[in-house]
């Protein structure tokens, strides 16, 4: 799996320091249950990909090239990132879909390659590492069958199962629509749905959720996610895990979160506001983010993790 340069940002370009971070222009929020409002957010959350000129070191897309000036490549800025982490414990948080696995038309086919799996295993041997995903654990990892799992919404499981069955039946007639039960949320995928039918997907989902005030809707990349109404998101998950690991109140810790989706923005925002870590957005499409750095795709994520592991091994030897 080869990788390619993320824009044309030079290795000696100075990314903004943690202390000088500013809020990006677009805040994240959960949308109300109104099908018309959903359609607009479905389009915002699922932008049309802007083709990047891969393999050509000169003719990069000018819009993407300008974007990487604001969100420099984490590969090009690697030395600066690890220099900031020198003498600190790096805590690594990873999204799954679109970060460790490719975005594919069929969600069930979104699996890590053997090579990526080995790289993540290696990272976990050297660094506190967690995967934060909306997928159920059995769909993400089989590394440790005895792993203790924190479950924030167990009481909602019967309701989630019920809504899953209703949505499967509701969207059955929409070509390309797929409903997935992720245990603690239900995902309505419209990646393979003709855009003219997106309003129908929104309307069907809205019709089901009207009867469930304890559930809310979140937008991801060509997916509607039905979640319990609890004060919980990926930012809260990062805070919880740091606290559980005894790393929350230490200035000797550098959290790094890598993710590609709108749902990862809560984690990026937590690290940005606390001025204690870095968010790395995985995207080949220019978009506003709370992240500080960027990577193009999962192959670049793998390259970054490999370099991080090698750096950590060399640090441990000294």
TrEMBL record:
<comment type="pathway">
    <text>Glycan biosynthesis; trehalose biosynthesis.</text>
</comment>
<dbReference type="InterPro" id="IPR003337">
    <property type="entry name" value="Trehalose_PPase"/>
</dbReference>
<comment type="similarity">
    <text>Belongs to the trehalose phosphatase family.</text>
</comment>
<comment type="function">
    <text>Removes the phosphate from trehalose 6-phosphate to produce free trehalose.</text>
</comment>
<dbReference type="InterPro" id="IPR023214">
    <property type="entry name" value="HAD_sf"/>
</dbReference>
<dbReference type="InterPro" id="IPR036412">
    <property type="entry name" value="HAD-like_sf"/>
</dbReference>
<feature type="compositionally biased region" description="Basic and acidic residues">
    <location>
        <begin position="10"/>
        <end position="20"/>
    </location>
</feature>
<dbReference type="GO" id="GO:0004805">
    <property type="term" value="F:trehalose-phosphatase activity"/>
</dbReference>
<protein>
    <recommendedName>
        <fullName>Trehalose 6-phosphate phosphatase</fullName>
        <ecNumber>3.1.3.12</ecNumber>
    </recommendedName>
</protein>
<dbReference type="InterPro" id="IPR044651">
    <property type="entry name" value="OTSB-like"/>
</dbReference>
<dbReference type="Pfam" id="PF02358">
    <property type="entry name" value="Trehalose_PPase"/>
</dbReference>
<dbReference type="GO" id="GO:0005992">
    <property type="term" value="P:trehalose biosynthetic process"/>
</dbReference>
<feature type="region of interest" description="Disordered">
    <location>
        <begin position="1"/>
        <end position="20"/>
    </location>
</feature>
<keyword id="KW-0378">Hydrolase</keyword>
